[in-house]
Write a structure and sequence with these properties.
heterodimer, B: Rna Polymerase Sigma Factor, Chain: A, 2 domains, about 70% helix
Chain lengths: ~140, ~200
Amino acid sequence: MNPDIHKLLRFKRYEHPTPDYFERFLDEFHERQRADLLKQSALKLMWERMVDLMPSMRIPRLAYAGVAAMALILSAVILSSQQGETMAPASLALNAPTPVINTAPLARQVMHLPDSSRSDFPPHYVLESRPVSYESPYSF
Amino acid sequence: MAEDAQEPEINDEDMVAQTQNGDPRAFDALVRKYSSRLYGLVYNMTSNHEDTNDLLQDVFSKAYRSIKGFRGKSSFYTWLHTIATNTTINFLKKRSRGFQLSLDDIDSHVQFDPEFIELTSAHDARRDIDLKEMQQKLNEAMMKLSNDHRAVVTMFDIQGMPHAEIAKILKVSEGTVRSRLFYAHRQLQSYLQEFLTT
């Protein structure tokens, strides 16, 4: 250690702010603390309070897992039911019988299936490659 | 009378525990106790009063926010000084080179300091030592040091901390502290030759 340098640097102890600076410093510190508090979003404050409150509620840890699982299941059920509602009209439309409008003469269109097939399969006609039922069309 | 007027020494551990239990007045007591000492640390590293004020506010805000996590592995004093040193060094890394020295007034009591009297009497009689000039030169010389060197010089030479305490605050070995001091003193000697008695 260089004693002369050490002595010289010790004089820097005499550099300091005015005596009332440190009282004002504490006031400024309080002001800044309040300003910081106001800056914090309401959500963050709510979260902090919730976290602070949790240990004092003495809720067993498994209860948190249970509640989380229930919330997950509930949201899955709600989501799937909403999806079901939105999908329903489309699927019904797919299953619904397509109305066939026949404009050609009946004699030309009707094709009889061979007799052997009658016993195995329900009888039906093919009109221009499109199957139709036995029911008489109401439009006739 | 003077002794009666003195504030009783507060116990850091009690004040920390009270702050952790939600009493902000306990932290005020810690701010009062350490603001002057920390001011010296930060000011002598920055050589700027306004920067020191802002940094000191940041240091106490950081300490207040993280005091719940303080487990007492080191003393509160060491913990607070570590926050102050790290905050200041980080600030100095970002600060532009073109900053201005903004220095505090020198207490006129320096003229009664025996070491100052010794310095002025030993100094070249042709020229009186001008206090302001000496302050300016000292601060300029300090600012020529690296941040790490300036930190050890501030803590050891100006604040009078022991090597072991500085090592704890900076999280380095005592050997490193001594080595940094050696190189810093050598540099300062060349900058401040005119004030040194030979």
